[in-house]
Amino acid sequence: MEQLKAATEKENVRIEEQKAKIDEQLKEVQPLIDEARKSVSSIKSESLSEIRSLRAPPEAVRDILQAVLLFMGILDTSWEAMRKFLSKSGVKEEIMNFDANRITNEIHKKVTALVKQKSNSFEEANAKRASAAAAPLAAWVKANLEYSKILEKIAPLEGEKNKLLKNLKKAEKQMENLSKGLQSVDEVVGELKRKFEVLMKEATQIKVDLDREQETIKIAGTLVESLAGEFQRWKLQIENLKDEQSKMELCSLITSAFITYLGGCSEKDRNSLLKAMCKMFNISHFKPLSFASLETEQLNWKTKGLPSDQLSLENGMIMFNSCHVSLIIDPSGQVSSFLSKFLEKSETFKAAQSDLMTQIELAIRFGKTIIIDDVVEFDTALIPILRRDLSSQGPRQVISFGGKQIDFNTDFRIFICTRDEKVEIRPNAANQLNIVNFTTTISALSAQLLDVAIHLEKPELEERSSGLLRDAELKKLELEGLEQLLLQQLATSQGNLLENTALLDSLNKSKESAEIISKSIEESEHLHKELNTQKEIYVPLSLYTSSLFFSFSNLQYYNPMYNYSVNTIMRLFEKVIKSCQDNSSTRVETLTRQIQLTVFYHISRGIFRQDRLMFAVAFINATMPKLFQSKEWELFTGVLVDESSTQSGIRVSWITPERLPALARIRSHLPSLFNALKLQDDASWNEFSKTLQSEKAIPSNVEVTLSDFQKVLFIQAVKPERLYNALVDFVNKNLKINSINPPAFELKHIFAESEAIEPILFILADGADPSQELSELATALRVPYHSISMGQGQEQIAYDAIKECSIKGEWLCLNNLHLMLAAVPSIFKHLSLTTPHENFRLWLTTEADPRFPSMMLQQSLKITFEPPPGVRNNLLRTYTQIDKQTRNTVTCQSIFVLAWLHALLQERRTFIPQGWTKFYEFGASDVRVARAFVEQLTAKEADWEFVRGILKFVIYGGRIENDFDAKVLDSYLNVLFCDDKINGRPGKELVKGVEIPASDKMEEYIGLIGKQVPSVDEPYLFGLPENIKYSWQIVEAERTISSIRTLALGDSKNALTDSTETTTQIIALWKKLCQSDDLPKRELPVFHSTDPIQEVLCLEAINALNLIKFLHRSIGNVAKSMKNPSMASVSTQKVIQSLVFQQTPDEWDSAWAGPSDPAEYLNAVVKKTRGTMQLHESSKSSSLLSSPIDFSDLFYPNTFLNALRQMTSRQLQIPLDQLALSSAWTPSQLPPKQCVQVQGLLLQGATFDSFLRETTVSSSVYYPAPLLHLAWTTEASSTINGEQIQVPLYSSNDRSDLVTSVNMPCRGTDKWNIAAVALFLK
């Protein structure tokens, strides 16, 4: 027995040695097997599903799967068998647990042959490229093949080991026979053992139970510990859910309203309206986006290309939760791309394509999702779809579309996208659409610009950053999925949670995966932050560039032709980055400067000359906010509303009294600036008060304390006639440019700058036409050029030409689009459907028209085309239309004088309202027709009276509406067309320095124009006063400020939501104006007098108080509406809208036509009311006519003059129609009893001291006129001896409201008519 045991032990030692040898052989290949199994375990189910879903797999995938199936013993290696194998639920585990001992020699040979034959398929790189799952499987195949080789090699060792095991079993059998003899002993021992076992079993059971309870406690502790983070988060979520559940109805109501009504609102409006709704329902911090969409959904939207800003995410929520069809306004064009990626199996169609209706019909039938992009006009054929006008035909639902009854599939969805914010939608369609406006916000735009900058400057950085961001968001989605799975497992578990080991294992795995993903997300975010640090260098550039866009985006609200899309700034930004040559450390600063100038000049080139200063000042305000301190911009633009400022305490000898109120406003709103001016130091300000260019003569000790804009504010207050120059200097200095006008452009540069898909739109002014230059450029570049003048019947010709020229790479010019605005959308559609040749260009010309389709404006390269200003350029333009045929000298002189007259009439429009009271459309056709008449009438002996009559009544006079403007034309004709000027002899001057040649050669006249006519217009050329440029500067500066105000307010729809501040200021101003004498509560006066003047003044007082009471009610209604907007009537809403735009409401203006600014209007009403009341009181004592009267205190001075006429008629017993208004400047010339003295008049265009005198360059704009005496006398009587001129008396300096006309003594009536002398009320 002992010998057998010893032999057995020896056999065991030899067996172990054999095992060690076998293990030594397997040691090298085992890591390969383990690594292959690990790689197989990492294969994602999605990757296997992806392979399974393939109709025809890549060759590498097929070869690898064939090897796998052979190892598994599956001889059918067809693709169907492979797909069936991969679809098994535990396929990964089966592969991982495969026993290589199962590999037979035959299988080994087959697989070895396959791997040799298709070695490329089993290379890791090729396998990876074929599929994410293929590489691990290939590694597994090669590892098992290697393992099989080793098994074959160790087969002899295995045989020897088996032989030893056989001997061992034999020895053990012998030992068993021997042990039977010990059975009896063993039975006794067995009995004892059984008893012992029973006792041990009981003890063991106790220990097992104890161990189980301890294990349960341990599992419970581990579970509680591992779910601690989730517990806190879920606890918070439960509290939020309970809170939301308690307010579910209200939250649903607010979210529904948000989705239904706020999709078309801007971000600012949404926030304010949402805040108002939440306040109404007493809900705080509510976000419809979080309520109506999961974070995973939002992450998914962002990964598919939806912009990540708040507004875009809200819009995404609205689009996918609305039951109405969404009309998506997307200026950037990103959303249609996002929808096509996000919506599976969706199709995108252009609105212009001819088969659109057929595609929509197919989509309705088969339940497709379609996206209609680039909609220019909303097609009413879509209305049945919007309304879902369904009808039943048996079990089918049908819809009427395109004149057909079509089966309606409930899966059908449609999204409509447009870039045009002003797309026209009929009311019946608008009610069925949910408008979703992807308004450009500064944060979203700066993010886009940053992406563009990184893409162009650091493409590798952008690629890494995008990959990390995408990876992090995908992992967040995966983490969210694991958390949902965790919750689902906990919710669906049955029995004792702690005893459900499968569940606990699953929970632990999910938790471990979640922790791994969380760490991975943290690492990705950390790395992303590091990359962002490298991107930070471009953040200021992108933010600044986005501010540039918002500096011109509102121009369309001032002039609809100035319409630019966000793509404009994107293109310019990309162009600047690509063209920048600075590669040093200052590159970003260089880029900032270049983009500033590029944008400024690009926009300036697309707006008219007269609007460039307005844009330049607004541009600086938008892009350089640090130049403006608090309240400075508001004071400059007149946004600050207050009572006519009191100037008490301001005593400055060199400042005129009428400028003191403006100075008082500075003291009131900007006291530090007022104190810094040191105005009491007369010695320092002496030069400033005397110099013409006062903006450049601010004392040095004061100038150093003022900012550039503070100097502008000061000039605005005390020297408004220099404000225009001050603004130009301010712009040039801060933009570091020489002129607010862009550099002169050439058409060849425009051609080089433009692209084939981008139309070039010329916005024409004053008859300018680039057609000739375009034709010459096309000839020089050898490009075929076609020109079509648009008019009725030309539409189809234009469409065909666009198609043909775009294919051939030729140029096409469509002229006068303003005559065929209805065809512009169709032109845009046809253009959008082309894939043009790179040399193709579409040139368009149009005059400015507010109805011009905005879509074409946004997509075009816009250039304003204006004729060069000035008399010289005007004369040269006229002479380009004159042929060189032979004419006599008088005719040639007559043509020259006619061209001169035409130039004066046109260029005089620069000085509106002094040059002309309004803009008159004198055009090239006028001078062409006039020349034909003049040539005919001067061919022989000229009849100048007849010539003047033709020019006055046939050519130019018919356009003139104002009597005093007609006198200007009369005087020009009298001075120019007479024998004294045109007689065929030399030496006659039109004006100083400009002679009329005595020649019959046109070349001499053209040469004289270039030599003698100055390039810059001076007042003497027109016969206007020398100081008219001051008046022009005042008008231009006021127009500029008014335009800036319009820009700042933008769209009326957006402005109305921000009405509180302005209307509150108006309400406060009204209270302040009325508080001293409580005008709204004053009793209306009662009149009993028969005196016409007393009666009229009493009626004036009654009308004034009624106007006060009316305004009080109107402003009261506005105040009530501010507290409760739902109470506002339609008329009150209109009043509020006007006040927001700082315009006098129409209903106020209809009560009394006053200033256009509401604050000035209220100040004027209160001032005139008080003045009228004082005049009424004075009339009761019969002392009214004995003292001077200020007509500016009256609402209707004409009515007072009529009352004076009635009184005179009664006193003198003369009929009214025999009385004429006479004027005198000395009291002795008129009867004292019927004479009224008028004070406070201002004279413009001349000075006066018994006669009208010429002004000088340094003369002030207005000259205080002496006391005027007016009386009604018989028509035969005359108060002025000698030459005199009728001068209009206007109520204000805009020359719109004529009070009367008065006679003024002068020398040379034509001269003063041409000078446009006028009187104004104070």
TrEMBL record:
Parts forming coiled coils: 1-28, 154-188
Subcellular location: Cytoplasm, Cytoskeleton
Domain Dynein heavy chain C-terminal: 1036-1321
Domain Dynein heavy chain ATP-binding dynein motor region: 300-516
GO-annotated cellular components: 9+2 motile cilium; axoneme; cytoplasmic dynein complex; microtubule
Dynein heavy chain region D6 P-loop domain mapped to chain residues: 757-864
GO BP terms in the entry: cilium assembly; cilium movement involved in cell motility; intraciliary retrograde transport
Protein name (Swiss-Prot/TrEMBL): Cytoplasmic dynein 2 heavy chain 1
Superkingdom, taxonomy of origin: Eukaryota
Domain Dynein heavy chain coiled coil stalk per the UniProt entry, residue ranges: 13-277
Molecular function as annotated in GO: ATP binding; dynein intermediate chain binding; dynein light intermediate chain binding; minus-end-directed microtubule motor activity
